[in-house]
Amino acid sequence: MKSKRDSSVPKGRQLKQEALSYVLKTLGNLDIRRDTLIEALHLVQDKEGYLSKDNIVALAEIFKLSMVEVYEVASFYHHFDLVEEGEKPPNKIKIRICNGLTCEIKNSKNLKDLIYKNFAKEFHIQSVPCIGKCDKAPAAQIGKRIVENADLNKIKISVLGPYSPKIPKYETFENYIKKGGYKVFKKILCNKISPDEIINILSESKLSGLGGAGFLSSKKWEIVKSYNEPKLMTVNGDEGEPGTFKDRFWIENYPHRLIEGTLIAANVVGCKKVYFYIRDEYPACIEILKREIKKLQEINLLKVPVEIRRGAGAYICGEESAMIESIEGKRGLPRHRPPFISEKGLFNKPTLNHNIETLIWIPEILNKGSKWFLNQGWTNKNYGLRSFSVSGRVNEPGVKIAPAGIPLLDLINDYCGGMQKGHKLKAFLPGGASGGIFPAHMADKSMDFGVWEENGGFIGSHAVVVLSEKDNILNAIKNTINFFKHESCGQCTPCRVGINKISKLLDQKYFKKNLYDDLIYVMRDSSICGLGQSAGNCINHYFEFFDDN
């Protein structure tokens, strides 16, 4: 017979003073607010390599939250390892092997098996979604250090350490100033150019949001600026779309172009504070931004408070409202709209949100003029330059700064050194896993917004994955579906259940189109955000273009 609970003892898990003291020491000078909970979880995870139940209870006490509130946040994000009572904690240092599409076609599965066989006793081995090093596939991360073009020999060397991020050489503040950096921002501070003039220039340039939506930047500024209440700004650097790595490129090479673009936008719109939200997979980017922002603070050029927040391994936080929930210290669940974040965003304030690449072009446009940017397009119907993240079966993968609207064939031949020897173009993804997959005969179409939609796809963040006749198209599509299955936040039943069902059907080699059509129709029409709405694009294209496989 089960014994009765001692009624003199409080219900639930009890706070341990040693855990409380330990967590308080670990948090150091962290400002304890509801919105800093995720950073607190990061600090404990960084030190221990996992999160114990005792430390969860201690965090609940420190933040004056219920234990379930802390637990639900910690369990939502993939980069937090929760350890149950009596469970053996994982090794502190993790080896993460990317299983994204480009890494998979470069044999990352075999690499993961070899790493597990050799290092499972000493390290925590994880297979993870895209880590933003598709141009150096297969990629791995040991601690916070990236291993490019990884093989077993490189891993054997890298496990010896160090595990801290390697900071690349980048354009410093001094060098940026020599090239005329912050000239426009200083003009704004001296009232030599008005906010309305700047918005007009951006409007004439037709600069669109380059995170995927393609909404006119000037229109967004006008909407947020129109509210009289205090406004905030967020910078979305959580590029989790498989095949996308342009944010990493820009921050690791030209951080001050991003910072100046951000300060211009915040000043013109009237934002009282800026929050950078950067992928936890990009520790070098986070360190660079911290260093350079500190320099601007020291010389009193920042002019607006800035905070840098780390993501925690959740693709869904690339969606603007989910990112805002995460900055507020909550699970990254997309919000219902309306209201849009321009009206009620971060902390319920009107919020200006921008992708990193959009902000990169703002100083250039204001220095060189709207006509300069307009004339950079491939034709007179395309406007500006774009950062294409190109990976897969090309000779020279990487971020390619090319005219908007360039056909894929020209992008491959003129910017990527052509196809790899022995490989012939068979298919490509123009906008990452969610943008769909198309056959080689469509590679002459314009790479721009509004082009691929007529075929049930989109260019999105301009993440181009190139496949050859040596790649299995169905396996590539399974990779995208498994990614969405892993990353669905679970809020919408059609998305959560639909993607799981599609994954099972593919594993069972079930190929009756009608059932897939029904599932995708419901997911597209009933999901809150773009994940569920676009997860079936590659399946649709398989039946339309590749069914003979």
Describe, in plain words, how this protein is organized in 3D.
The longest helix has 16 residues, at 283-298. This protein has 23 helices and 15 strands. By secondary structure, it is α/β, with parallel strands linked by helices. The N and C termini lie far apart (62 Å). It has helices at residues 17-27, 37-48, 53-63, 67-76, 101-105, 108-119, 152-158, 173-178, 183-189, 195-205, 217-225, 246-253, 255-269, 283-298, 320-327, 356-368, 370-374, 408-415, 473-487, 493-507, 513-526, 530-534, 537-545, and strands at 51-52, 82-83, 94-98, 124-128, 140-142, 145-147, 231-237, 271-278, 306-310, 351-355, 385-392, 398-403, 425-429, 438-439, 463-468.
User: Which structural class should the secondary elements be placed in?
Assistant: alpha/beta
Report the count of strand segments.
15
Strand order of the largest sheet: 12-11-15-13-14
Strand-residue fraction? 5-15%
- Note the total helix count: 23
Distance N terminus to C terminus?
62 Å
* Approximate shape: globular
Give a short account of the largest sheet. Answer: 5 strands, mixed
What is the mean pLDDT?
95
Q: What radius of gyration results from the CA coordinates?
A: 24 Å
Short description:
With 549 residues, the protein is of the alpha/beta class. It has helices spanning 17-27, 37-48, 53-63, 67-76, 101-105, 108-119, 152-158, 173-178, 183-189, 195-205, 217-225, 246-253, 255-269, 283-298, 320-327, 356-368, 370-374, 408-415, 473-487, 493-507, 513-526, 530-534, 537-545, and strands at residues 51-52, 82-83, 94-98, 124-128, 140-142, 145-147, 231-237, 271-278, 306-310, 351-355, 385-392, 398-403, 425-429, 438-439, 463-468.
